[in-house]
């Protein structure tokens, strides 16, 4: 057999997926496992979206679409940004992709040359490093602390930008912390990158899931950055594999050319179905579900704190809590393993998201029902009591 490419050795395992496999194995053995691990909403697509899919399938609308996506869908996404986030955008700048992953891969292929360095926060979503490496780039994780909401800031750009640095990849709200970047902090960061003629890729796939004041889209602050978003999280369509990118006009011809070769088009039936997401009645469903996530956050944050699981930054978006376990353990891998095997609770150890906080943090997803979260807290209380004893 031929030798594998060297990049295969550089790509790290996605531990959240490994945890899911372990949890599924235990469940298959008859164990009752509460999953606070995988970042997948327990809600699924509303009935109106499923009905739209069935109509499209019955009408035979399963052929290729244009590489940029269906024009009506691109227009609906543009309206969504204008109405929800005060960020008007021309639909011609929107590319519909095979999930946010397809958009990130497309952005990496268009913007990164072999050897280019891309700055990212530590902690951050691990798969983003893989997209950078796929284009021959070098992801460089910058340790970020609670006082900066675990996000890159302007000072980080000044201190860590080097001769090979080409740009930054950031997310707001973030996975794993659920923390947004404030409008002023984002504005300052953008200015620092602009001074160095770098690119900014901003992952906004959790933008619709906010629990305090509505966050600012980067598009409202700067018209020349690359925005990544998805139907997976706020719209609860994970397996439909549908996302989008908003890019500066100058990049569109190159992006369209690459998109046509890499994927031909995003899943066509999913595109037709996604049009129903923007119906006012369906949008009210999504907002009601957003408030359900807020209720879960508001329950879990104090409940975890009462167990000595500290939360350095209270999440204001997404559906994750990044908790500090140092009062109970200095080894998050062992702690997560014991929590799964002894208490039947799946979580993700901090090493998935970078080395800076790997040993003393866990990511918990509250994308599950309130009754299961209450059961999880009860099990944790017993588990930690046994440990203390």
From TrEMBL:
Organism lineage: Bacteria, Pseudomonadati, Pseudomonadota, Betaproteobacteria, Burkholderiales
What domain of life is recorded for the organism?
A: Bacteria
The cofactors named for this UniProt entry are:
pyridoxal 5'-phosphate
Q: Which family does it belong to?
A: Belongs to the class-I pyridoxal-phosphate-dependent aminotransferase family.
- UniProt protein name: Aspartate/methionine/tyrosine aminotransferase
UniProt keyword terms in alphabetical order:
Aminotransferase, Pyridoxal phosphate, Transferase
Presence of keyword Transferase: yes
SUPFAM superfamilies from the entry?
A: PLP-dependent transferases
* UniProt record, GO biological process: amino acid metabolic process
InterPro entries, per database record: Aminotransferase_I/II_large, AspAT/PAT-like, PyrdxlP-dep_Trfase, PyrdxlP-dep_Trfase_major
Q: Which residues form the Aminotransferase class I/classII large domain?
A: 32-379
Q: Which residues form the signal peptide?
A: none
The terms under GO molecular function for this entry are: pyridoxal phosphate binding; transaminase activity
Q: Which organism is it from?
A: Paracandidimonas soli
Q: Is Oxidoreductase tagged as a keyword?
A: no
Tell me which CDD domains the record gives: AAT_like
